[in-house]
Write a structure and sequence with these properties.
The complex is a heterodimer of chains A (225) and B (542). Chain A is mainly alpha-helical and 225 residues long. Chain A has one domain: Up-down Bundle (Four Helix Bundle (Hemerythrin (Met), subunit A)), CATH 1.20.120. Chain A is built from 8 helices and 2 strands, in the order αααααββααα. Chain B has 542 residues and is mainly α. The chains are: A mainly alpha (225), B mainly alpha (542).
């Protein structure tokens, strides 16, 4: 009555019952991640929108706040994240070729870069906290327009905070993928989870690529000396 | 079909596949998850309805005598939050959409069955947080969380309420994501985009809004929570922050959310109207494009909620004009349903009564929407009962009625039993009368100048308020009736065959209730949607 038996015979181990083919499953998973990343763009977009409005209104306060950013830590962190994206891409490449060891090693390096980023971010956060640059709870501003600079720092903490939260989630996902890859769950035929987690990781990197100039580089002070 | 000859009791279907609690709480079957949603949102519908009844009881007399002013603020806040986020938004997509979309497109399940289950759990977690908020004293900011009331002045449980809605929002996002991917990737051979039932198109348009809009609400509520918990300065006017910015962000989601709460209902009505007039839908392509058009335009009109909030006059003019544009696709829908009925062979079964109710009441709600979109009139009716009546005509007169129509229409498929037709018609009639008696007087009240959100009012408004409260009581009876007879029918109703309405659509070509994987063999589609002219000649075997 049904032709289920031959379907089972050609079953790839990663294929779920409700898909008719591996191609369909891969396309669905990758598309699902892309749609999710669109929701993430809208999520961060709300904050970028608020940032733009206030930066337009209070440009000088934005410059004053930006001058309290640590240019070198921010730049090093940007490089760290770009490197993590490279190793992530190499990891996905390894998965495409079915090289289990390459996946595990490159993703472990990605995790190290990710942890390095969070560590540096922690150093920066500590510095801002000790200098009373957390609006509301721990705030003291020696110069003019303290309230408006507090607005800048509110966005700094909220934007980098939600970005760091996404990094933590990303690290958890990559760690899970490393574990699965180490156990040999993936092959050249089935590596969709590596690819989709890679997409997520690159997205979180791109958010930082925008945050870095918007928060650290407003004042040109590092260029003009 | 061979399956029709096998007695129901022996045939395996999604309901009798397992009876243990685990077989429900860990299920990945879209049909079972739809039933989990059905139970959850029915619970919240009655919670929200309970608040509504208390509101109407307080407004029976001009004096504030039943509850204190503070309590009244909490009542309308929690009525709005529960009804919007825990009933209306999940209603048609998460229950009917979940149950029907895979079957309508000839798939075995949604693309991501485990994410589907996760989205139900997220709604439950959000619901628990909401219940915690309610039981520990509630929240009084209005469902809109306007700043600086929500960030600085309210002494109620703003953070847990915001968190509840944040979590429920992710449930909505994941449902939308699942639908988009499913409709793109899982259609059966031959099921082209132009052959999709309009119900699928409607849920697709809804999913676009859910995916693009809900994250903005999520971040807005998070910023409110951050400002409240850590005293950040984001919307604080004393530190240069702009409360209007919050309103812009909030309505950027919450206006499109209004269309989350109507588009799926339009999909339901298209299915019902074609079936009970035995005709193809009039203007299929326009109907599909109108759904997408409403979804897209919905993102461009949000600031019409803020005409009196102090925004730029020129911006207000543009938003007013854009709001008028929404009337075009909405009118296309109404005209095409009417044209579908023209010269059709109309029968007046319960679902069709609801569809009639929807078309009339949606038209009322839509036309009064033009009043409030017009700058001058809006200044007069802003924050009056006119606005309350307008959006209840859309949300209750439109969405709840479409939802009930859909529940009745697909009840034989969901439960395998027929509901009692006489009781069904009676309840539909009571709901229609009760609804109009509740909300029509509110148009008049608002136009006369009665403001919303006050627990007492001038004595000259009492007659209309008494009418409204009487209507709400009738409406409550109307809502309890289906609750009773639908439960009754699950055990005692007449057994339904696979297609009791002789309806078109793949979901009617599989047994009632359907087997776990919906179809024994993946169907091959060679016909257009709503081919009722072809069905007439080939009566379905009973």
């Amino acid at each position: 009555m049904s032709d289920r038996a031959p379907a089972i015979a050609t079953h790839s181990p990663g294929l779920q019952h409700h898909f008719s083919s591996m191609e369909q499953q891969i396309e669905a998973s990758v598309m699902g991640m892309w749609v999710f990343l669109i929701t993430e763009i809208m999520f961060f977009g709300g904050m970028f929108c608020g940032y733009m409005v206030y930066r337009h209104l209070y440009y000088s306060a934005w410059v004053a706040g930006s001058q309290k950013m640590d240019f070198w830590w921010g730049t090093i962190n940007t490089i760290v994240l770009l490197c993590s994206s490279l190793t992530m891409a190499l990891g996905v490449r390894g998965a495409q070729l079915g090289q289990r060891k390459a996946v595990v090693i490159f993703l472990l390096i990605t995790i190290l870069f990710g942890l390095g980023f969070l560590g540096i971010k922690g150093i920066e956060y500590h510095g801002h906290w000790t200098e009373h640059q957390f609006p509301g709870l721990n705030w003291a501003w020696p110069g003019a327009d303290g309230n408006l600079v507090a607005l800048f720092f509110s966005f700094y903490w909220a934007m980098t905070g939600f970005h760091a939260l996404h990094m933590v989630i990303g690290l958890g996902l990559v760690a899970f993928i490393v574990y699965q890859a180490w156990k040999g769950r993936y092959s050249a035929e089935y590596y969709t989870p590596v690819e989709t987690v890679g997409l997520y990781w690159h997205f979180v990197d791109i958010v930082w690529i925008y945050l870095y100039p918007l928060l650290y580089l407003i004042s040109h002070k590092h260029i003009s000396g | 079909m061979a399956s029709a000859t096998i007695p129901t009791a022996e045939r395996e279907n999604y309901l009798n596949k397992g009876y243990g609690i685990k077989s429900w709480l860990l299920t990945t079957d879209h049909k079972r998850i739809a039933l989990l949603y059905l139970i959850t949102i029915t619970f919240f519908f009655f919670i929200g309805g309970f608040f509504a009844l208390l509101i109407r009881l307080e407004l029976l007399t001009p004096a504030g005598d039943l509850v204190q002013a503070d309590t009244y603020n909490k009542l309308f806040t929690m009525h709005g939050q529960v009804m919007v986020f825990f009933f209306l938004i999940p209603a048609v997509p998460a229950v009917l959409g979940n149950f029907l979309i895979p079957m309508m497109i000839g798939a075995k399940d949604l693309a991501f069955p485990r994410i589907n289950l996760l989205s139900w759990y997220l709604l439950v977690i959000g619901g628990v947080l909401m219940m915690y908020t309610i039981l520990t004293g509630g929240v009084d900011t209005g469902w809109t969380f306007y700043t600086p009331l929500s960030t600085q002045f309210s002494n109620t449980h703003v953070v847990t309420a915001a968190l509840a809605i944040f979590v429920a929002g992710f449930s909505s996002i994941l449902t939308g994501l699942n639908f988009i991917v499913t409709i793109h990737q899982m259609r059966a051979p031959g099921m082209t985009w132009s052959r999709l039932p309009l119900f699928v198109w409607a849920n697709y348009a809804t999913a676009i809004i859910q995916v693009l809009g809900t994250p903005v609400l999520a971040i807005s509520l998070m910023l409110v929570a951050l400002e409240r918990i850590f005293s950040l300065a984001i919307f604080d006017p004393q530190r240069g922050g702009d409360p209007l910015l919050f309103q812009h962000l909030f309505w950027f989601y919450s206006h499109p959310a209004v269309y989350i709460m109507i588009l799926p209902g339009m999909g339901v009505v298209s299915e019902i109207v074609t079936c009970f007039t035995r005709k193809r839908i009039f203007g299929y392509k326009f109907m599909a494009l109108a759904l997408i058009g409403i979804a897209v335009l919905g993102f461009l009109v949000w600031a019409h909620h803020m005409f009196v909030a102090g925004m730029s006059l020129y911006a207000a003019l543009v938003f007013s004009l854009l709001s008028y544009f929404v009337a075009v696709p909405s009118a296309i829908k109404v005209f095409n349903w009417t044209s579908t009925m023209y010269k059709g062979s109309i029968s007046y079964a319960t679902p069709m009564l609801y569809a009639f109710g929807f078309i009339g009441l949606f038209t009322m709600g839509g036309l009064t929407g033009l009043f409030v979109a017009a700058l001058g009139i809006d200044v007069h009716v802003t924050d009056t009962y006119f606005v309350v009546a307008h959006f209840h005509y859309i949300m209750v007169g439109g969405m709840v009625i479409a939802y009930l129509g859909g529940i009745h229409f697909w009840w034989p498929k969901i439960s395998g039993r027929m509901y009692p037709e006489g009781w069904g018609k009676l309840a539909a009639l009571i709901i229609f009368i009760g609804f109009n008696l509740t909300f029509f007087p509110q148009f008049v009240l608002g136009y006369l100048g009665m403001p919303r959100r006050y627990w007492q009012y001038s004595p000259e408004f009492q007659v209309l308020n008494v009418l409204s409260t009487a209507g709400a009581t009738i409406l409550a009876v109307g809502y309890l009736l289906p609750m009773v007879y639908l439960l009754w029918s699950m055990r005692y109703g007449k057994i339904a065959d696979e297609n009791p309405w002789n309806a078109a659509g793949l979901e009617w070509m599989t047994p009632s209730p359907p087997p776990t994987f919906n179809f024994d063999e993946t169907p091959m589609v060679t016909w257009e949607a709503y081919n009722y002219d072809e069905l007439k000649e080939v009566p379905v075997e009973r």
